[in-house]
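PROTOCOL LOG
Step 1. Enter all chains and additional molecules of the complex.
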Amino acid sequence: MKSLAELDKLREKLRQEMNVREKDHDVTVTVSMGTCGIAAGAREIVKALLEEMKEQGLSRVALTQTSCAGLCQHEPLVEVNRGNEKITYINVDRDKAREIVKKHLVAGQVIKEWTTPERS
Amino acid sequence: MEMYRSHVLVCAGAGCISSACKSVQSALLEHIEENGLTGEVKVVETGCMGPCDLGPVVMVFPDGVFYRRLKPEDAAEIVSEHLLKGKVVTRLLHRPAGNDKQVAGFDQLDFFKKQTRIALRNTGVINPESVEEYIARDGYRALGKALSQMTPAEVVEAIKESGLRGRGGAGFPTGLKWEFTARAPGHPKYVVCNADEGDPGAFMDRSILEGDPHSVLEAMAICGYAIGANRGYIYVRAEYPLAVDRLEIAIGKAREYGLLGDNIFGTDFGFDIEIRVGAGAFVCGEETALLASIEGKRGEPRPKPPFPAQAGLWGKPTVINNVETLANIPPVILNGPRWFAGIGTEKSKGTKVFALAGKVNNTGLVEVPMGTTLREIIFDIGGGIPAGKKFKAVQTGGPSGGCIPEDYLDTPVDYESLTKLGTIMGSGGMIIVDEETCMVDLAKFFLEFVQEESCGKCAPCRIGTKRMLEILERITAGNGRNGDIELLEELSAGIKNSALCGLGQTAPNPVLSTLRYFRDEYEAHIRDKKCPAGACQALLTYYINAKSCQGCGLCSKVCPAEAIIGEKKKPHVIDTDKCIKCGTCKQKCKFDAIITV
Amino acid sequence: MSLINLTIDGVQVQAVPGTSVLEAAGQAGIKIPTLCYLKEINEIGSCRICLVEVEGARTLQASCVTPVTEGMVVRTNTPEVRQARKLNLELIMSNHPQECLICPRSTNCELQQLAAELGISELRFTGAMSPYEPDFSSPSLVRDPRKCILCRRCVSVCENVQQVSAIAPQERGFDTVVAPAFLEPLGNAACVNCGQCALVCPTAAIHEKDQTGEVWAALADPEKHVVVQTAPAVRVSIGEMFGAEPGRVATGQLVAALRKLGFDRVFDTDFTADLTIMEEGSELIKRLQEGGTLPLITSCSPGWIKFIEHFYPDLLPHLSTCKSPQQMFGALAKTYYAQKAGIDPSNIFVVSIMPCTAKKFEAGREEMNGSGHRDVDVALTTRELGKMLKEAGIDFNSLAEEEYDSPLGISTGAGVIFGSTGGVMEAALRTAYELVTGETLPDLEFHAVRGLEGVKETSVNLNGTTLNVAVAHGLANAREILERVSGGQEYHFIEIMCCPGGCIGGGGQPIPTDREIRARRAAGIYDADRAMPLRKSHENPAVQALYKEFLGEPLGHKSHELLHTHYLARQKY
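Step 2. Run joint prediction.
Step 3. Record the structure below.
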């Protein structure tokens, strides 16, 4: 270890993984993993999200699961929570999942067309 | 490091190891593999999380769900339900005493919620064998900051300003110790970490060493820089093999990363650390005895002055700090002394780790700001007294401390307040006793301990504590004499005033404090030959309550002294002359008809 | 150096920095009672008797280990201080057998005296006592842990002054005991039997093995011809047993007293000291001339011998092969004297009066039977002789002086100075000079080798050859010299005495024996030397006659048989 800067660089890299253990995540990404979700391929979605998050070097993001959200026909479902904002993506596939990470999580753009249909 | 979506933290503190956490861990790993989660979920072995009586304990992140008392069979469900489907396994959650519902998040539990973790910031959170995890949580940044942005004098000044005091017993200001040593003539100088934790019931130092060894190494290096020392010793007792292992691993890793050794952070400063394993003599926690032991001599104290700051290890200026004290150093440097001084009370800054033991629901380690009341610690965090029993007293400070009765439960805990109550902070042991504990017996227990652990050098400690113990033995055996209390008081005062070291000078404290608050119990033993708590066997008399006795005859059958007589189906009677007070009849009676007075 | 100002009991006192409160008080005429303290040897503050109140200190302080500081205010005589001292003494007494009346140290016991001084009038504390039994395994010393008050003086002497470390505190707490490692019996330990421990023991926890009974029995046995020899150092110390000043030369009274006790002949070890010079001097000259192992080191002191056997066995070839004067005497008493007096040697009983406990061990060494019998039957210490005289009702100080018997009682001043450190060296130099140069010494006093300095060195010119000599006393100093020898420093002749001060400070001498008393006894030794008509060993007519009538010549065949010995390497532990 030659300098504090070198340590800090290393620390930033190592933090990515460790942030899973922090309770104050900026963003929580939740995949519905009820029987319906798993049947619709939610496992693959989780993997794809994780892979893309790794590639993007995202930290301060929690990737969690939840049980059936009641929208079985739209599974797989991915919910992105940032502060009070809650966006739910429906009928997510592997490619969509990667896009969600790139656009929504990294760039902060919600991909409107994949979100829950407006209900009246 | 690899990125996982979930971390399963398995507590591998000594408490959980003894409740078989390792088999839970391997069951978890097995099921994770079976479910194809290996690349997504990481199982991490951590140091002690604190709630030892609930072990084996596991925390699942990112949700922070806390599972307790796990068996290997529970692993399948945790994996298939929680890790795969995100469904918390309710039956494995903790339900705190007095709650009607299980609590999922660890941060929703009072035990964790009410704590402020500085010394224990990483313990139970990181893998102690991974320097990377330590670095990820700001590890060695304080050392880097000190070396590259501060002069040694500034480091000393920061520690002084923080108000940090020694966590091992007497509460001496750490910054002053460093300053004296830095200024003392003589070279080389040494940094010694006192890891000879010996108070019965206290294990915070072990927990830090096992759970976060790098925090101690980093602090020692910072101290070395501040005082001008290039070598440190960790004196750790042989009874802590896991701590020794993890320290060795940590020292190796730190050397690998160049965080120990020559030219740390590219500066001229070099520092290295050696482990010295002691045989666990209590007195070796006394600093001069500890130094003698490191030097290969019989571990016994010598008179001070000279203090170790002037003439310590091999006669050279030496700082001796205990583990918990050192664990506070990196955060002080990183967050600044004012941040630290903002926590705690006027004269006692920061937090203190307490080891809760005895008659309390949540036994284990807790870290709270100085000034937290005893009631908060024992009832809010500790969950109160089990089995609906009544709180009687809390013994703090181990064998050098004393007990505090109910009237003082709202006392904010700091060095001064405890001293005023006739006890000490010590290393932070808290033994809670309920109404069934005899205070004379408790005092006897501690005196037995110091008597056995006395080094035997000075007469008042060697002989005086023995004579005190003999008096307590006869009191609890029902042979107390008039004047015994006065004799105990005289011996206590004399030993306190004339013993050579802190161990001897404080040895009478358990007796003095029980005499102060529970003198009537002593008097009852001596005058009435009664033990009010019903704990001293020799002072009990066994009777059969004729109203409850069904005359089944079981008691008379099991009595080894043939002291119980009676006709079938009629109330039996105990011949108190023959009764040897073994208690077998009471244990066996199905009608609770046997009572003790 | 600027002095430190402090107040003791309201008196302004000045003291040199580093002075203890105890010493500073002493200098101001204020006596603080002590028990474990022994100046410069044991300053560890373990007994907690010398407690004083120091203003600002949390507890009472042990004055023996508390250095003076500027502005310090000390009170030595407050009720609290007196009470604490008394309590600690009572505690110590509660673990000490109450058998003063039958104790070997009765009336000369510091604990007894302190109990009287502090006015202890009641035994308030009773309870468990030290669980260890007395240890009789050593031929020289008896350990009685029951009487030990754990002051550690013996440990300090053994570890620091002698650097033998045969005894140390073992176990902990109330079970603490001073004993050899692993609680081995002393007889199995690497103890050199020097008895310095016994000399500093305040009680009877370690004392010489009492052999007076064997001597009383021999004296009472009509079959036995009992002869006695007196070591040089005894004549300047025995008077102390009867209240005389240390260093008073009481040779004539010693002889008279021994006759009164009933010894058949009263001889003098000084005679064989002179003989030692002849043998050892010849050995030195021979080694110098023939290129033998140098330096030659003296072999009179049995504690020293056992020390080198345990700790420096590789240096054994440096030792002179001469037996000690005690053993030379025994061998001659049962051969030469027996022949001359016409007595069957098996009926001769040889008693030595020695300042030494190690002499008991030496007398029992297997190889010490050159006469065909055990050469010396019993070696008594000065203290044991004192006891016998008291038991016999002999009023030592009022005795008229008497002369030693012939021929083994005839000696020179060179023999008597064996009793003090440097004496053997000086005696050897007196003789060697004259024998090698053939000239008379202009001044026969070699002051460079006298005195209590630990290691003394000088060089002497013998006919153009420079003889480098060194003298050490006390085994720590012996180690120092041996390290120098191992390090290649060139010496020709070295005198080593086991005990500090040499034999005048021996472990069998009257108690107390401290630095000042040692100096006074040494002065007595040199007084005795000056009072002798002959002061060079080779001028001793009885020694000359011995060679002529019996031995032939120094290092001759008979000498070899009777006067020389060999050594054995021993384990360190």
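Step 4. Note key features.
Residues 46 and 125 of chain B are 6 Å apart (CA to CA).
Chain B touches chain A at residues 1-7, 9, 36, 39-40, 42, 61-64, 84-87, 107, 125-126, 132-133, 135-138, 140-141, 144-145, 147-149, 257-259, 264-266 (CB under 8 Å).
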